[in-house]
Amino acid sequence: MIHHLFLPLIVPLFGAGVATIISRRQLWVRVIALAATLFNLGYGIWLLVTIATAGRQVTQAAGWVAPFGITLMADGLSAIMLALTALLTLVTIMFSFVTIEARQERFYYYPLLLLLMFGCSGAFLTGDLFNLYVWFEILLVASFGLITLGGSRAQLEGGLKYVVLNLFGSLCFLVGAGLVYGVAGTLNMAHLAERLNTVQQPSLVTAVAGFFLVAFGSKAALAPLFFWLPASYHTPSIAVTALFGGLLSKVGIYALYRVFGTVFQRELTWLAPLILLVAGVTMVVGVIGAMAQVNVRRILAFHIVSQVGYMAMGLGLAGTVGLAAGILFMAHNIVVKTALFLIGGAAEHLTGTGELKQMGGMARREPALAVLWLLASFALVGIPPLSGFFGKLGLIQAGVAREQWLIVGVAAGVSLFTLFSMLKIWNEVFWKKAYSDMSHLPRAGVGLLAPAAVLVLVSIAMGLGAAPALEYSTMAAEQALDTVGLVRDVCGADGCDAVELAVAR
Amino acid sequence: MTFVLSLVVGTLFAGAAYLMLRRSVVKLILGMALLSHGTNLLLFLMGDGVVKGMPPFVDEATGVTPTAAADPLNQALILTAIVINFGFTAFILALAYRANQAVGSDDLDDMVETDRL
Amino acid sequence: MLVLIVLTALLMAPLGLFARHESRPVVGWILALIPLALFVTISALAPTVLAGGRVEQAIPWVPRMGLELRFALDGLSLLFALLVSGIGTLIVLYTAYYLAGDPGMGRFYLTLFIFMGAMLGLVLADNVLTMFMFWELTSVSSYLLVGYKHDYPSARRGAQMGLLITVGGGLALLVGLVLLGNAAGSYTISEILAAGEQIKASPLYTPAMLLIFAGCFTKSAQFPFHFWLPNAMQAPTPASAYLHSATMVKAGVYLLARLHPTLSDTPLWLYTLTIVGMTTMLIGAVTANRRDDIKGLLAYSTISKLGTMVLLAGMGGPEAPAALVATILAHALYKGALFMLAGAVDHEAGTRSLSQLGGLRRAMPWTAALAILSSLSMAGVPILFGFVAKEEQLYAAVDNGLPPGFDILVLIAVVTSAVFGVLYSWRLVSGVFFGPRGSGMKEHVHEAPAGMLLGPALLTTLSVVLPLGLLPATATLLQPAVNAISNEGAKISLYLLPSQIGLPLILSMTALLIGAVLTRFEPQIVAAPSPLPPWLNGDRIYDAAVDGVLRGATIFTRTLQNGKLRSYMTWAVLTLVVVVAPPLALFGFGGLALPTLDGVEPFEFVSALLIPIGIVATLNARSRLGGIIAASFVGLMVAFIFVIYSAPDLALTQLLVEILTTVFLVLLFAVMPASFERLSSPSERSRDGLIAVVAGMVIAGVAFAASSVTQVPNISAAFRTESQSQGFGDNVVNVILVDFRGFDTLGEIVVLFTALLGIYAMLRLRPVADPTRDDEETPLQPTLPEVAALLGNGQAGQPAPREREAPVAGKGH
User: Fold this and answer.
1) H or E element: which one contains C58?
2) Do C627 and B3 touch (CB under 8 A)?
3) Chain A residue with minimal CA distance to C149?
4) pLDDT value for C810
5) pLDDT at C26
6) Which of C229, C591, C684, C775 could be C221's S-S partner, Cβ–Cβ 3.0 to 4.6 Å?
7) Burial level of C80, CB count in 10 A (0-12/13-18/19+)?
8) How far apart, in Å, are the Cα atoms of A189 and each of A125, A131, A480, A483?
9) Per residue in C299-340, pLDDT tens?
10) Residue of C640, C585, C646 whose CA lies nearest to C614
């Protein structure tokens, strides 16, 4: 019997393979893509419920006992990310049906999307540090393919920076993983959590942790490793931008939460001030960049950077409350960010350009789109009772509880400037009069609006249901930080070292 | 010898870093190649250090690999890394080639449009 | 019940969309039933409050954050709730006439109802976080209302200014409320007030109060944040009347009044509120006299009165709470009426400018009458309710809680403001209704429709009627509000004429007299230069700030995000060094065995040495081919190292990959011009070299350290033992790859597969305008000739011409 944890991996992989082979039959490819994503979404929701009732889910790949084989494990954090990944991919696919160029579709667009989902899902489910590296590489190379699909000069230029800087991060990750093996002799996360606390040279372990900080910081677009994001995210098709914007940098944050929350817990306490500093700088630099831009997607791209700073703040406020606030914020941000890209992208798609100067008049022309934008952007800024308010409130409360006044002040202040830059888009795209005669342009159909509407509804649900969302995030944070329970679930009651000694004569 | 090899790893990284800071795309790629070599060699030093002449094969007589043999897990990891990085190298080669075609030059300073304000 | 009251307006809001531009005013009458129902319901709950009780209701929402939907109706919230729902009813009615024929009327009603619900939620909230939620919602709905005519840049600017300032204050407020909640141990207002002593003793008191003040001052347009209110006059007049005079702007005052009972007897409270309130009061009064636009005049007078309210909330003394309550009521009555009447004039005469209006008392007699009465109330002329309120203010000012010297100052300020009040009231009335017929008006001006005048009539009637025998009843109604504000059980007693002639009455009459005299000099006063320095102009500072911020952001981003990959790489490499080097230095390499060279044979040494030599060759290569070959040499030497140190599989793989990579490199890049150009300057080179060397040293250090410290048994021991028995293989590395860690290998294969897809798409799929593009773009399995053709598209021997493609920003389809 295949353990259920393999299902969200097998289905997209299989789907991608089949879709590649029959890549000329557009309808069937779309069906497969939709089916695979729906399956993952259903599984993700089922997993969310199962973990809430039955706790952490663990299995070993090919049956090799931990810590020798590769462990797959799912806790609250994994389940949240898995479900959201599937949701985002689904919504992106729906949006692609309406907006993607036929030429691009033929050249393995959906297989690449499915492989991206495959890579992300695997990253969220693995319990082995080197295996995490492999999953990162899968999702990375899939993202490489997607970002250059179309071959425009902008994509190639931006893509080059994207690829090089992300590869640098990857290699830092690889080095880090190797160094960990050198220092601690194992790659299993549970086993590492057990062992790293007893290593005699804590400074060396901190140095090794530094590699992971740089690696994941690169992936997550924290300062000063974020430059690849604004350089490349606005170049591919709108659907791809939307998916990347909501998902990819959050995978880096997930890795930070997982690796520093579980494996490098002791180092986290020492590195916390540095992380808070990075968080604050990222928030500020990101929002300054956003204010300077004059193109819809470029503004939103810089916002991604700024918002990632908030999630890092959650990590820096080491502890359950801070981490729970960070998880809540991340979940909300994933949904809202993609929604904004889809809505702004819809306006761009309809107008034919993303340059603010050349847009306008959308409020009158597409009131539904305008309402969606208002809801989504107020959710991002954190106007209650939308989802962003609770994420922000949680972080502020956690920060106050830890007496980290500076970061709380920065977080609040940056919020105002985020609003300022979002208002720019609202003014230029929706409120001001149209730049040119728009009567010959297409109108927004359900296909264009539905994906964003779905996400906005999810965001509203997160706001109204903030209590269950926060409870789940708190449970997820507790599980992520609970190394004792992890070791017990993965290796058994005696711990991983005992298993290891028993096997190795 | 581990010490010497550590220094070699250092030079590989230094060379890679220098090349990756240059303006030519081809030098960038060569730098990335050096970087992956450096990474592989660094990984190679992990585990129990380097061992001469005792590859990790099972000894016919005892049915197990001698403890003094080289670390197999290490090698497996590096192998995986080599293949993965090869995939990436191929991709970045194609990308650099296409970028060169589209831009018409090898100079990275000619490829700044996507950030232009 | 309370939750229902709040939710009704919010949920009924979409009903407003039924009003279209072709709707008859009866739609307004029907919609007005909603706020009317709310008013009636709230009134029905009033007896409990008047008897000294409270109506409460709570619904949990996010317990972990201390956020619950907790509402309470006491005297203060009763007063405000009645104002919001009562005036709301009148405004809904008024809008039907004012916006008749306007296509956006439905949108206006929708937003108006949302605002109404939010405002009700704000005043009824018993939990500070709940209150904050509604506070922000009022800011947002105000934004949408001010920007109603969003085609006009001035409307957009006014809306944005209001939003940014109130949300900015709101953020400060949020942090302040969280601090307050922390100090009090609860977010429930009644519990916060009960914990007053504890809060005041806490170190969080000062920062919390300052932040909360910031929120209140921004919302209630206090100096120096007041300048958004005149700009909010871009909103349609019903919104100005409702939000920006009668209700929303009083939210800050409301919060201050709420916190007053136990948090106000500190110097911080006393002096901050007094100084800010006084300044605002005077600035508002003076500027109102210099405004040509009727709505602008009324806006500044609102600012002035808000300043008075803040002053009353701050100044302490036994009469202040009563005066505050009376002022709130009086102001709502006359200001609401005056705004609506101003809108009526604008609607009928076509202009809002005092210099262009005049002599309308014949054409619009009813409007004139109502306006005159309400203006008299505003001026504080007996026997209108405004006079009663002014008397209370003076009583409070005479007996205030400030130290001697200061208290006289406050008294003088209040009197001065009263004088200016007379002046601008007179200006308004005489400028619009008296004097020669204005030049800028429409040809035929007729009286406003009755429906439009109903609201102002009602409010004006109250201003007139209340003092005529209803004062004791009013006092009884307002007493619970005063109880809620004051901590000493102050009593409110409203007198038309006091039992004895005291200082307040004298001052009040004097102010009226002086004001009346000054009306003679109105033209001079209007034309006089501003008492404030020219740069202290909120509008100008705001515009300069916005512009400056945008400019600064652009310069900063251009410098940082400069498009050059090497800058980005430099940051990355430096970050790595900065993060790894300090802990490494701390580690200090102490206790590590000194490296020895026993057992090391010369050939090992030489092989290792060849690598740096190869690296140097790569760095110095003049031609691309040379560089490629040198790099390839390095790779081969690495493979050789693998051979020496017992890694045959590794060496094999490395060799194969190296060969393939070299072939690709030569294939793709040897076609470029043969030699590298020297592109970087020597100083750049040295800098990069330094960075590279430092990075290399750090890595070498870490590598050596990590390889030397393993004492723990590592897990590969198990692989050594289990490889044959469990994995059935003799080559342990292979068994690991295929079996133990087969999952990794699956991943690695998928990476190759995905890379293939991406590469193929990249080589094959080119933009439509690209000259190198193939016409047929079907993703077939490419044959060898096709591969050659693919690559041959970049002509052998010459670089592709420097063709720039279409502009890059945003066009990524």
Assistant:
1) strand C55-62
2) no
3) A431
4) 41
5) 84
6) C229
7) buried
8) 12, 10, 11, 9
9) 999 999 999 999 999 988 888 898 999 999 999 999 999 999
10) C640
Tell me the two tokens of residue C782.
């490419």
DSSP state of C370: H
Query: pLDDT at position B3, please?
Result: 87
Ordered by where they begin, the domains of chain B are 2-51+70-104 (1.10.287)
pLDDT at C711 over 70: no
CA distances to A40, A169, A178, C162, C697 from B10, rounded to whole Å, are: 44, 18, 15, 58, 6
Q: Is the pLDDT of residue C811 over 90?
A: no
With H, G, I as helix, E, B as strand and everything else as coil, classify residue A73.
strand
First to last CA, chain C: 54
Q: Is the dihedral of CA C183, C185, C190, C195 positive or negative?
A: negative
Whether residue A484 lies within 8 A of chain B, CB to CB, comes out as no
For residue A91, what is the enclosing H or E element?
helix A76-99
Per-residue pLDDT band at C792 (split at 50, 70, 90): low
C358-389 burial by CB neighbour count: b if 16+ within 10 A, else e?
A: bbbbebbeebbbbbbbbbbbbbbbbebbbbbb
Quickly name the fold that domain C563-712 has.
Answer: Four Helix Bundle (Hemerythrin (Met), subunit A) (1.20.120)
- The H-or-E segment that residue A192 falls in is helix A189-196
Q: Between chains, do A231 and C563 touch, taking CB under 8 Å as contact?
A: yes
CB A472 within 8 A of CB A462: no
B36 touches chain A (CB under 8 A): yes
Gap between the Cα atoms of B89 and A141, Å rounded: 11
The tens digit of pLDDT for each residue in A386-432 reads 999 999 999 999 999 999 999 999 999 999 999 999 999 999 999 99
Q: Which pLDDT score, from 0 to 100, does residue C443 have?
A: 75
Would you tell me which residues 569-588 of chain C have a C-beta closer than 8 angstroms to some C-beta of chain B?
A: 569-570, 573
CB atoms within 10 A of CB A418: 23
Residues 6+ apart with CB under 8 A from A264: A196, A205, A209, A212, A271
**What's residue A235's pLDDT?**
94
For A114-148, write each residue's pLDDT tens digit.
999 999 999 999 999 999 999 999 999 999 999 99
Report the candidate in C690, C707, C700, C712 with the shortest Cα–Cα distance to residue C580.
C700
C137/A297 touch (CB, cutoff 8 Å), yes or no: no
Question: Nearest residue of C to residue A299 by CA position?
Answer: C810
Confidence class for position C805, pLDDT limits 50, 70, 90:
very low
A296: containing domain: 3-504
Of A185, A390, A416, nearest to C714 by CB-CB distance is A185
In this structure, the dihedral spanned by the alpha carbons of residues C444, C447, C448 and C453, taken in order and rounded to 10 degrees, is: 160
**Alpha-carbon span A158 to A164, nearest angstrom:** 10
Query: Tell me, what DSSP letter sits at residue A324?
Result: H
pLDDT value of position C795:
41
- C 52-71: CB under 8 A from A: 60-67
pLDDT value at A307 more than 80: yes
Q: Phi and psi (nearest 5°) for A73? A: -140, 145
Which tokens hold the place of A131? Answer: 């295996």
Q: What confidence tens digit (pLDDT) does each residue in A312-345 have?
A: 999 999 889 999 999 999 999 999 999 999 999 9
Cβ contacts of C685 within 8 Å, gap of 6 or more: none
C720, C745, C801: residue with CB nearest B80: C745
- C412 — contact with chain A (CB < 8 Å)? no
State what percent of residues in chain C have pLDDT above 90: 50
Residues C295 and C759: their CA atoms lie apart, in Å, by 65
**Mean pLDDT across C177-184:** 93
Q: How many separate domains does chain A show?
A: 1
| Residue A177 in tokens | 């993983």
Report the pLDDT value the prediction gives residue C497, as an integer from 0 to 100: 65
Q: Residue A90: in which H helix or E strand, if any?
A: helix A76-99
